[in-house]
Amino acid sequence: MKDSLQPSRLLRALSVAASGLWWTLVVFWVLLALAWGALHGWIVPRIDEWRPVLERQASQVLGIPVRIASVSARSDGVMPSIELRDVVLHDAQDREALRLPRVVFALSPRSLWNLGFEQLYVEGPRLDVRRSGDGRLWVAGLDVSRGGGDERAADWFFRQREVVVLGGTLRWTDEMRGAPPLVLSDLQFVVRNGTRRHALRLDATPPADWGQRFSLRGVFRQPLLSNHPGRWQDWKGQLYADFASVDLSRLRQYAHLGIEVRSGQGALQAWVDVEDGQVTGGEAQVALTRVDALLAPGRAPLLLNSVSGRLAGKRLPQGFEFETRELQFQAADGRRWPGGNVALAWQGPQGRRSAEGKLQADRLDLEALRRLASHLPLDATSQALLEAHAPKGLVDHLQASWEGPVDAPLKYQARGRLSALELPVHPASGRPGLRGVTLDFDVSQAGGKGRLQVDRGALDLPALFEDPRVPIDQLSADLQWQQTDTRTTFSATGLKLRNADLQLDGQLSWHTGNTPAGRWPGVLDLQLNVVRAEGARVWRYLPLSLPKATRDYVREAVTAGRASDGRIRVRGDLRDFPFTGDGTGEFRVSTRVSGVTYTYVPRSAVRGPGAWRALTGLSGELVFDRNSMQINGARGGFAGAPGLQVQADAAIANLSAAVVTVNGLVRGPLAESLAVFNASPVAASLGQPFAGTAASGTAELRLGLGVPLAQPERTTVQGGLTFNGNDLQITPDVPALSRLRGAVAFTEGGFTLSGLQARALGGDVRLEGGTRSPTPPSAEPATLIRIQGTASAEGLRQARELGPVARMARQATGATPYAATVGLRPGGVDVLVTSSLQGLALSLPAPLAKAADATLPLRFEILRQPGAQAQDRLSLELG
Q1: What's the whole-number mean pLDDT along residues 13-17?
Q2: Parallel, antiparallel, or unpaired for β 840-842 and 812-825?
C-alpha cells in the first residue's frame, strides 16, 4: 500500500521540467528588467553619445556611409522612442542618395530581440532611385537587384514592423531607358511587415503634365523557408495602381506597358500579379480619351477617341490567358465597339500534347475585331484569313475550344449565336456572301447543326447569277452538316424564302463529289415549292451557265406576270448543270403563270422598223426542263387589241442555241388582226401593203415565229389569216370586198392569197396573187392581186373609187365580166381593169352606145409615178 503512493518516473520528470521552466522565466524577466533599467537609466540620458556607434553600426548594416546630425530619445512609457535628425546616406560614388530630415523609431521587446524597431517614422525624406545602364536597381545607394551585395540592408528594412514615410520627395533616374529624371513630391509611404507578409502603399504627386496624384499598393508573401525577407525577387503577391488622371505618353517613358502608347489621357486602375519577382498577369480598368497606341512593330497605330472597360491577362508556362469585360471604344473614324466580354486561353504544345485554346465571348462586334486585328502582331496567314472573310455582325455569345494550330485545328468545338452577320463573297473558294443573318450553331470537326434566320438581308451569288445580290425579306432553315476526311455533307430542312420577287419553301441536301478531282462544286438535291414569283424578275434567277443572249431574252420578253403553284427540282452533279446529257441529272422548273406580258420578239431583236406586239394577260404553264424553256397552253391577248383572243405556245428547245419558237392562234376582229400585222416587221419589209386597209367582221389568224436570238435578222415567220365573210377594202382606191372568204398565207418574205371569194361591184369575184421578190422602186409592184368577177351597172355606179368609170355606169344597165390587177407598193396602188363589156348596155352618144350583147373592149388604168412630186397617171380606153 505504501509503495503504491510513490510518484512514478513520468511525474518526477514533469516536475523537474516545470521547475526548470519556472526558473527560466524568472531569469528572463530579471534580464529584461536589467535591460530596461540600463536602457532608461543609462542609454536614454546619454543617447547622443552613442551617435558615432549608431553611424558605424548603420553603415555596416547598410553597406554604405551613413551620417547622423543629432540623436535624441524620449521615454513616455515602458519602451522609449528615439529621434534622429538629418540622416544622410551616400552611394558608392559618395553621392547623396537619401536625406532624412527627421527619423523617429519606437522600440519594443520584440524589436530589441530582432535588433530593429517597432515603428520607423520618416518625415520629409529625399530619396534617389536609379536604374543603371546595366539594369541594376539602386535605392538610396543600395543595390537591390538580384545578386546584389546589399541584401542585408533590404533584409533589415523588411524585418521592421512598420515603416511610415510622410512628405517625402523621390527622384527616379532611368539610365537604361534614357528618360529624363522624374520627381515625385508629397510622398506618403507605408510598409507593414509580418513574419512572411509585406504590405506596402505609396501615394505621390507627379509633375503637373503627368496628371493627378496616384496611389500604388501591394500585398506580398515571401517563401516559407526564406531567410531573406528583403529578397523581393522571391515574393508572390499583387500590386495595385490607381491613377485618377494620367498622361500615358509620359508614363511610357518610365515604364514598359507592353505596348507603345504614344498618347492617351484619363483614369487607369491596374492590378498586377507578381510571382518570384516577375509579372505573371494583371488586370486594368481604363477610361481613356485620345489614345494613340502602336500594338506591334510594323503595324498601323491604333487611334481611338475613347476607350473604357476592363482588361486582364495572365502568362502561362507555354501560353497565356486574356480577358476583357464591358470593353467599349470609339475609333477615330467614328465606329463604336458596343462593349463586349472576351475570355481567351491558349496553351502551347507540351511534349506529346497538342496546343489547346478556349474562347468565351459575348456582345462582340466582328468588324471592330477585324479592324483591331490589323493593328495586332498576327502572322501574315491569319491576317490574310481575316481580310478575306471580312466578317461583320455581332457575336451574342460564343463558347469554343480547339486543339492544334488555330488555322488548322485537329479538333474543335463551338456553339453560340451570331446576329446581323455579314460575310462578303470569298473570292478564292467562291463561298456565297451573306447579309442580315442570325445563326444559332453547334459545330465540331465532325459536323454540326444550326438554325438560320435572315430578316431584311441578302445573299450574294456571283458565281451563279448575273445580278449577284439576291435581296431577302425573310429566310429560315434548320441546318445540319457532317465532315469526314473524304466527304462533306450539308442539308437544310424547313427552308422558307421570301422577298419581293418570290416566295419559296422546301429543302435541299448537298455533298462533295465522289472523286477527288470532282469534289467541287458538289452534288445537289434541291426540292422547292413556288408559292409566288414575279414574272418580270424571272430572268435574274437564271444561272450564268445559260448563254447571255438567253438571259437577256427572258428579261426583255417577260415584263409582267405572276407565277404560283410551282415546283423546282435540281438533282445531280453541279459540274454537269443544267444536265443536258442523258442520265446526268435533273433540272426542271414548272409553274402556273397568270397576267403575263410576253414580248415574244423583243424590240432589241428586230432590225429595222416595226415590232411584234406583246402578248398580254397570258395564263398558262412555264417550264424550264434541263436546257429548254416552254410556255404551254397560254391564253391571253395582244397589246392594243383588246378584242383579240390568243392561244399560244412558246419554246426555246435549246437554251444554248437560243432560238425562240412561237405558235399561236388568234381569233377576233379582223381590223385588230390587220393592225397587229401592220405593226410587224413583216409588213414594214413589204412596204406596208395593208396600211390603208379597212375591214370588219371577225377572222382567225395562225402565227408561227422562229427567232434566233444571236441573229434576230434571220427571224422566220409563217402564218395564215382565214376570212369568215368579212368586209374588206384593201385601199381607198380599190372597191370594197364584202362577204370575203378564204385564207391568206404569209411568211417573213410575203403573203399568198389562197381561194379567196367575195362580192364586189355587184357580183361575185375571185382573188389570187401575193407578194413577189423585192424589186427596185421604179419596177413593177412587189405585191399583185388578181381579181376576176362580174360587175353590174348598179355596182359600178356605187364604186366611186373608179372615178370616171363610176360616172359612165350611170348610163349603163346589165352586168359584164371583168378582170382586175391591183399592185401594192410603198408609194401607193396601181389599178388595171379590163372588160369586154358584153352583157352591159350603154346609153351613151355614139360611138360609145352599145347593146347588151355587143362587145366594147374597156381598159381602165391608174399608175403611180415614182418620185415625191410625181402625179398619178390615169388612162381610159374604150372601143
Answers
A1: 69
A2: antiparallel
What is the structure's pLDDT at 806? 83
Residues 6+ apart with CB under 8 A from 442: 414, 415, 448, 449, 450
C-alpha dihedral, 151 to 152 to 155 to 156, nearest 10°: -150
> If we measure between CA atoms, which residue out of 139, 129, 68 comes closest to residue 102?
68
Look up residue 41 and give its DSSP letter.
I
CA pair distance 664, 641, nearest whole angstrom: 15
* Cβ atoms of residues 162 and 189 within 8 Å: no
**Main-chain dihedrals φ then ψ at residue 469, nearest 5 degrees:** -90, 115
Res. 147 pLDDT band, cuts 50 70 90: very low
Annotate 230-268 with b (16+ C-beta within 10 A) or e (fewer): bbbebbebebbbbbeebbbbbbbebeeeeeebebbbbbb
Using alpha carbons, select from 735, 739, 699 the residue that is nearest to residue 720.
Answer: 699
Burial string for 2-26 (b: 16+ CB within 10 Å, else e) reads eeeeeeeeeeeeeeeeeeeeeeeee
**What gap in Å lies between CA 307 and CA 264, rounded to an integer?**
10
Q: How many CB atoms lie within 10 A of CB 413?
A: 16
Cα separation, 578 vs 587, in Å, equals 6
C-alpha grid cell, residue 244: 485618377
CB of 427 closer than 8 Å to CB of 457? no
> How far lies 469's CA from each of 425, 434, 462, 472, in Å?
10, 9, 8, 9
Contacts of residue 135, Cβ cutoff 8 Å, sequence gap at least 6:
145, 176
pLDDT over 60 at 672, yes or no? yes
3-state secondary structure of 334: coil
In DSSP terms, 120 is beta-bridged to 105, 163
Q: Give CA–CA dist 169/98, Å, rounded.
A: 10
- Rounded to an integer, what distance in angstroms lies between the CA atom of residue 279 and that of residue 260? 18
The full 3-state SS of 206-249, as one line of letters, equals CCCCCECCEEEEEEEECCCCCCCCCCHHHCEEEEEEEEEEEEHH
Assigned C-alpha cell, 199: 504590405
CA distance 477 to 464: 21
Interval 620-632: pLDDT, tens: 998 988 888 888 9
The angle at the Cα of 67, spanning 62 to 69, to the nearest 5 degrees, equals 140
For residue 786, give the DSSP letter.
E
The residue among 324, 221, 312, 227 whose CA lies nearest residue 275 is 221
Strand bridging mode 214-221 / 411-423: unpaired
H or E stretch covering 83: strand 81-90
Cell readout for 428 is: 478564292
pLDDT surpasses 70 at 43: no
Q: Which cell goes with 851?
A: 347593146
Contact 707, 681 (CB under 8 A): no
Is 515 or 507 the better-scoring residue by pLDDT? 507
pTM here is 0.65
